[in-house]
Amino acid sequence: METLTELGTLIKYVILGLFQGFTEPIPISSSGHLVILRELFGIEIKGLSFEILVNFGSLLAVLVIFRKDIIRLIVNGWRYLSKKEETAKADFQFILFLIIATIPTGILGLLFEDYISEKLSFPVVVGYTLLITGAALWVIRNLRGKKNDGDLTVKDALIVGAAQAVSLIPGISRSGATIVAAMLVGMKQETALRFSFLLYIPVSLGITVLKLPKIVTSPEFSALMIPNILAFLASIIASYFALKWFINIMAKGNLKYFAFYCFIVGILVIIFL
């Protein structure tokens, strides 16, 4: 009987990891889906430790997919700093805008992490915030901006950064909020997508560096080490393929389908959970 219980826990954690990984890159809120699935499975995971762990898996997938952009930005950023090469200026500015956009999330995360975890991580909240995510996606479904990487401003970065800060609330999609904000300030879809996911890296990396050592040495992690590791691995695989798929969806301009999904799931959660 105990073996069956352990097997059931393993399966549940793997499913949680797969769902988080799949929903992190696409605009339907990974944190919201974790809240829903924990409620359905009857798993109580206090705080944000599990979410941080599986988000680290998503971060690794993002790093792999955007590795060429990351290397280019680092190389050109250094070229501009050291040699003031004008051809590298746009990439250097892009890095500065990513740093600026990270600030709102860092501040609000430090101030409200406990409040969000304790007061807002409930299915009914997620139901309503998914409706908000769906409405935002619907608004920008037909937008086609003109701004490239070199056309961005400090104001654009702050607006997108504020949108990412709002996405700390479960049910508000991080990728959805940042892409919506980016397109509302006039970015092209490919620029909005790239800015959104490159912006994910410093925030996720910062949280991982600060929190992960404490998480993996905690008694709760040790007690469920294998389920946690499997969930982590599942999130890497699911994030990689989901992000590849979402890049193709963005290229075709089919964001409205994610809006429909958020509307349907949000209503179902409000009614039944």
Question: How would you state the average pLDDT, rounded?
Answer: 89
Number of helices: 12
Report the sheet with the most strands, covering strand number, pairing sense and barrel closure. Answer: none
Strand content: under 5%
Transmembrane segments: 47-66, 87-108, 120-140, 192-212, 224-243, 255-272
Membrane topology: Multi-pass membrane protein
Subcellular location: Cell membrane
Function: Catalyzes the dephosphorylation of undecaprenyl diphosphate (UPP). Confers resistance to bacitracin.
Could you walk me through the main structural features you see in this protein, from its secondary elements to its overall organization?
This protein is 80% helix and 0% strand. The model has no long low-confidence stretch (mean pLDDT 89). It is mainly alpha-helical. The chain has one domain. It is a multi-pass membrane protein.
Quick summary of this structure?
The protein has 273 residues and is an all-alpha fold.
Write the layout of secondary structure elements.
Layout: H1 2-23, H2 30-41, H3 49-65, H4 67-83, H5 89-120, H6 123-139, H7 154-166, H8 174-184, H9 189-216, H10 219-223, H11 225-252, H12 256-272
Question: Which features does this protein show?
Answer:
single chain, 273 residues, mainly alpha, globular
